[in-house]
């Protein structure tokens, strides 16, 4: 296992290098620039040239890239043009919110999607199966922002069960330790702060979980149907094994490999920032942070968001590979190194 992990980590190096090069060249070819964000559309050519000189943007591209990589390797992602704060600080303040939101959304998607997919597969061709498939298609086809506004109107505005926006009530004097508001409330035993932060997560998480839930449900259904037709399942049935053993040990365990792959990909994409969901609920995560950086032409922030999103995606893929061997013992690390 150790050799596999080290080899995969070494494979990340050229991938991340290529990602930084593509992003750097692409951002420097976009119209406008940081000087536009600072001066607006009415800045004089002289002022624009001065700002570009002060920021080193008038130097050759390869020189700028060399200086940028030197800062990046030291952990410096630059300074936000809009807030004049280090991008790393800005990102770390918002990333825990996205992690909390993703964790709850994927918990809902997995907890509902896998049982529903198995239920539909075991009743394939029946009316219940058709209803389950129809619901999953509806979940995939419904735009996330539209679903978010519906949840917000019904459960927040009309019924008043949940907050309408934000991560936590601003009137709560909560102690910050990790940046994860629910966890901070539990660690400090500020139960009201933890409960309020959780209530702020519910509607955005339900909204964000809609598409992953539908995808996981459909993948689980298809995988269970395929595994059910395998010879080893019929052999287990002929041996007189109980349905519980057949379902748990033979069907579900073998059907989980494509489901685990799907879960890993979905988790990585959600951790990259739920732009629409965070915008609808004014949730202060990296999705909303990304939207703000685009509006303000804040290229250092935009680069950091995309770069870290790629980094998170690669590590999630690595974790998914590690999970494979626990889901399916037939897969070993030596074979995956080839």
Summarize it.
The protein has 338 residues and is mainly alpha-helical.
Oligomer: single chain
Give the SSE string. HHHHHHHHHHHHHHH
Q: What's the CATH topology label of the largest domain?
A: MetI-like fold
Number of separate structural domains: 2
CATH class of the largest domain: Mainly Alpha
Estimate the global geometry from the Cα principal axes.
globular
Helix percentage range:
over 70%
Return Rg in Å: 24 Å
> What ranges have pLDDT less than 50 throughout 5 or more consecutive residues?
none
Summarize the biggest pleated sheet.
none
- β-strand amount: under 5%
Provide the residue-averaged pLDDT.
Answer: 79
Distance between the termini: 14 Å
Which architecture of the largest domain per CATH?
Answer: Orthogonal Bundle
Structural class from helices and strands? mainly alpha
Q: Would you identify the CATH H-level superfamily of the largest domain?
A: MetI-like
């Amino acid at each position: 296992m150790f050799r596999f992990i080290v080899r995969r980590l070494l494979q990340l190096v050229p991938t991340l290098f290529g990602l930084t090069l593509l992003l750097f060249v692409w951002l420097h070819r976009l119209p406008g620039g940081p000087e536009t964000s600072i001066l607006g559309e009415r800045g004089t050519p002289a002022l624009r040239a001065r700002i570009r000189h002060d920021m080193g943007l008038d130097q050759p591209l390869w020189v700028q890239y060399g200086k940028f990589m030197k800062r990046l390797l030291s952990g410096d992602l630059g300074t936000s043009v809009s807030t004049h704060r280090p991008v790393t600080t800005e990102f770390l303040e918002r990333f825990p919110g996205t992690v909390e939101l993703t964790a709850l959304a994927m918990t809902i998607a997995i907890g509902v999607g896998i049982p529903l997919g198995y239920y539909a597969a075991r009743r394939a061709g029946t009316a219940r199966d058709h209803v389950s498939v129809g619901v999953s298609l509806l979940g995939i086809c419904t735009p996330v922002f539209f679903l978010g506004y519906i949840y917000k109107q019904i459960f927040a505005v009309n019924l008043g069960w949940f907050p309408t926006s934000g991560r936590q009530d601003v009137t709560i004097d909560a102690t910050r330790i990790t940046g994860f508001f629910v966890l901070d409330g539990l660690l400090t035993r500020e139960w009201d702060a933890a409960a309020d932060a959780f209530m702020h997560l519910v509607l955005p998480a339900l909204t964000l979980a809609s598409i992953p839930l539908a995808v996981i449900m459909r993948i689980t259904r298809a995988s269970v149907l395929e595994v059910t037709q395998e010879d080893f399942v019929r052999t287990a049935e002929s041996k007189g094994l109980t349905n519980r053993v057949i379902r748990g040990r033979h069907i579900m365990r073998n059907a989980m490999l494509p489901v685990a792959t799907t879960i890993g990909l979905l988790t990585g994409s959600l951790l990259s920032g739920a732009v629409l969901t965070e915008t609808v609920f004014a949730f202060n995560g990296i999705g909303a942070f990304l939207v703000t950086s685009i509006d303000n032409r804040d290229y250092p922030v935009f680069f950091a968001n995309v770069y870290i999103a790629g980094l998170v995606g690669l590590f999630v893929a690595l974790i998914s590979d590690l999970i494979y061997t626990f889901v399916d013992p037939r897969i070993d690390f030596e074979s995956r190194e080839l």
